[in-house]
Recover the amino acids of this structure.
């Protein structure tokens, strides 16, 4: 139970740190433009300048309020992906280790085998 409580506390601390960073990051806007601009914004600007009559095929479902939030969400997505990948690799390594351990145990001779019950012989109850 203690292990789960410490894991939960660490996760809550990470979420709180992320939230504080988002709040502090939005307060420090420069006013002349976004601090964090991705390639999507650069591509959109380039298309708007070179092809003024272009209409996009799709509209975004969710549009973050600022570039900082967008960058933070991207970082969160990357962290979750890295966590999932680490979990899968750790699980695969542990399974391989357990298979090796089971194979080593089955190939090791037993020094004092227990007597086997022979089904043909009736056992007497006393």
């Amino acid at each position: 139970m203690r292990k789960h409580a410490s894991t939960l506390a660490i996760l809550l601390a990470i979420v709180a740190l992320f939230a504080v960073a988002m709040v502090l990051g939005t307060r420090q806007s420069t006013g002349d433009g976004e601090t964090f601009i991705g390639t999507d914004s650069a591509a959109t600007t380039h298309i708007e300048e070179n092809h003024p009559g272009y209409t996009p095929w799709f509209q975004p479902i969710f549009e973050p309020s600022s570039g900082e939030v967008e960058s933070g969400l991207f970082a969160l997505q990357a962290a979750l992906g890295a966590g999932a990948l680490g979990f899968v690799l750790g699980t695969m390594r542990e399974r391989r280790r357990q298979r090796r351990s089971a194979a080593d145990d089955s190939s090791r001779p037993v020094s004092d085998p227990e007597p086997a019950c022979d089904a043909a012989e009736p056992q007497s109850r006393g």
